[in-house]
Design goal:
alpha/beta, five-stranded parallel beta sheet, 5 helices, 8 strands
């Protein structure tokens, strides 16, 4: 793979996350009925950042859950010969809640479809919304982000890499050529 460009710097990611937090505050009528669920792996620290920002800006604590969608993927047979069972950590009820799924990049929409299936296996939320740091296009399913940090049109030969300090040792968004 070949590095092409830095799409968002650390500072730009921080500003984008703050803007997304404000958009969530403005869009959700009852933040006390809202939960954030990060999709493993980079969606989790992004959801935690959104929760911290919302707490700072609106003085309300939004619970954060961790969702593993491995068993709900429609491409499981191409990912591994056997299912890899990882655990989700959602220590609050989701029935009747406004659930905001959080992920780093939306591409085909298949990850989000799997996440929605996983959520419905846990309960029946009032509604499900989606917050993503980057939308790179090329949807295969009719799924869109409700809160989008940045739209980055890409080719199928390009890759968006979201780096998060806790996982990658740096925070930024990069464009790579496959």
């Amino acid at each position: 793979m070949k590095f092409k460009a830095e799409i968002l710097t650390n500072i730009a990611v921080d500003k984008t996350m703050k803007r997304l937090s404000h958009e969530i505050i403005e869009s959700c009528e009852d933040l006390s009925n809202t939960v954030l669920i990060g999709i493993k792996s980079r969606g989790i620290p992004l959801a935690q950042t959104l929760s911290q920002n919302i707490n700072k800006f609106a003085n309300i604590s939004i619970p954060v859950g961790k969702l593993d969608i491995t068993l709900y993927r429609d491409d499981l047979s191409t990912v591994a010969d056997a299912a890899i069972v990882n655990s989700s950590e959602i220590n609050f009820p989701i029935t009747g809640k406004d659930v905001i799924l959080v992920d780093d990049v939306i591409y085909t929409g298949r990850t989000i479809r799997a996440a929605i299936e996983a959520i419905f296996a846990l309960g029946r939320p009032n509604r499900i919304m989606l917050a993503v740091l980057v939308d790179r296009g090329h949807r295969e399913l009719p799924i869109r982000g409700d809160f989008v940090g940045k739209n980055v049109p890409t080719s199928h030969h390009e890759l968006i890499a979201v780096n998060i300090e806790e996982i990658d040792g740096k925070t930024n968004v990069e464009l790579w050529e496959k």
